[in-house]
Amino acid sequence: MIPIDLTGKVAVVTGGIQGLGKATANMLIRSGANVAVNYLDDSEGLSRQRAEECATEWGDRCLVAPANVCRRDEMQQFFEATQSRFGGIDFLVNNAAVLRDRSFKNMADAEWDAVIETNLSSLFRVSQTALPFLRDGGRIVNMASISGVMGFFGQANYASAKAGVIGLTKVLSRELASRKIHVNAVAPGVVLTEMGESIPESAREQMLTQIPLRRFGEPDEIGAVILFLCSDLATYVTGQTLHVNGGWWG
Predict the structure, then answer these.
(1) Contact 189/148 with Cβ under 8 angstroms?
(2) Please, is 21 exposed, middle or buried when counting C-beta atoms within 10 Å of its C-beta (0-12, 13-18, 19+)?
(3) 37 close to 13: Cβ distance less than 8 angstroms
């Protein structure tokens, strides 16, 4: 047995109060790390409620705070708070994302802009803002998607953003290698989160016929791959995109 022990390490997971972000934060905490997660506050108060539930569940080994990944000033404050609470940062998981699906001919500028801004441009800003806080030898893991490789109908914005994430990952792995910071991406297939479950039932049934394992992924299965990339088992892995999709290649 080769255990993964991240005791004393500090991780930031953006958008970490639900879905893949929460599963990843859970995995890192269970492995001993201290974890800071941000969330986007909403007028209905649902995000704050989820944040409070996470804070209660994770206890003193977590920091949960509102911060918009699209706002450099808010993320600067979030990283400063994380450093004040736990010290420097070892792992950054860029997970926050949104969906605004619509066919290309009907897609509005606002729908394109919102997805590109949150799913791609924010990775540039968050990662750049994080660099002074990120320890040498640290890890950055970017959440890509099978959509960025295959290009699904109705996802011109989402697929473009996630393809951009893969390209950005390769560039950062080269530019940050001098600091021994490893940069990789994880490209999940369809995973049974709120986002995955929002896909119409008929579309999901059709998707299943294309997946050799004949099932969708579980959030913990993605979190486990991210945990591997943050561990000492991945000391020679950088600039890669790990596809976690049950063998789905169209």
Answers:
(1) no
(2) buried
(3) yes
Q: Active-site residue numbers?
A: 158
Nearest by Cα to 36 from 92, 120, 96, 104: 92
CA 46/CA 7 separation, integer angstroms:
31
pLDDT (tens digit, 9 = 90+) per residue, 122-180? 999 999 999 999 999 999 999 999 999 999 999 999 999 999 999 999 999 999 999 99
Contact assessment for residue 168 and residue 182, using Cβ atoms and an 8 Å cutoff: no
In angstroms, what CA-CA distances link 74 with 39, 66, 68, 90? 11, 8, 6, 20
Residue 228 and residue 234: Cα distance in Å, rounded? 6
- Note the pTM of the prediction, 2 decimals: 0.95
Q: Which domains does the chain have, with CATH numbers?
A: 10-244 (3.40.50.720)
d(CA 214, CA 201): 15
Please give the Cα distance from 219 to 23 (Å, whole number): 6
* Closest C-alpha to 163, from 115, 126, 129, 200: 115
Q: What is the mean pLDDT of the chain?
A: 94
- Alpha-carbon distance of 250 to 228, in angstroms, equals 26
DSSP 60-118: GGEEEEE--TT-HHHHHHHHHHHHHHH-SEEEEEE-------B-GGG--HHHHHHHHII
In which residue are the tokens 């059709």 written?
A: 206
